[in-house]
Specification:
The chain has seven helices and ten strands. Helix content is 33%, strand content 27%. The longest helix has 18 residues. The chain has a single domain, classed as Rossmann fold, CATH 3.40.50.300. It is globular, with a radius of gyration of 18 Å. α5 runs parallel beside α6. The C terminus is likely disordered. With 228 residues, it is of the alpha/beta class.
Length: 228
Amino acid sequence: MIEFLDVHRMYKTIAGDVHALRGVSLSLAAGDFGFVIGPSGSGKSTILHLAGALDRASSGVVRINGEDLSKLDDRRLSRFRRDNIGFIFQSFNLISNLSALDNVLVPMLPAGISKADRDRAAEMLAAVGLENRLHHRPNQLSGGEQQRVAVARALFKKPTVVLADEPTGELDSVTGREVFSLLRKANKDSRWTFLVVTHDRTHISQGDKLFCIRDGRLVADAEQHAFS
């Protein structure tokens, strides 16, 4: 699960202090599918970075699976991120000189890659429709295929929390729907918690948890903003 309690994040810049989050409190239970919506610069990505242990809150509490991330040193935070969090990025973040199969296996590099790992990575790519693209590099794949590799990579390590930052932002509408169908299926089958930042509200369904943020603060009528 994901829990923010009165979370603030401030960045110091030459121009002055930037308050990215101002007292954000939110929660998602295990198996929830949540969305963060709001204008550019409102703090959406900051929420993902904190939930994914990529950044630390200036104050407040961020708990993931009951673990207070502020109490973890950098080494334990990195291990927690590796073992619990799956990331899907808008720009795919694939390594250009690696095949689709090896890109899926990247999270396993620190611990070493076994034959069982390679077999399961191939199964993950087959599950997202890329069984014939295992040995293709990113520049040999379409945008939709690259995002499918990114989805397979995020789900490969069986994370308890999956975070997606504009996962369909560089895809056409048809491919975007296909990618979201993969995420929905993984959520239904695994009961992992999903939190997605998006500008495209067409992917939001009734029953999803919605968080609308403006100027670093949550807006109370998130559902109205999502479906208006």
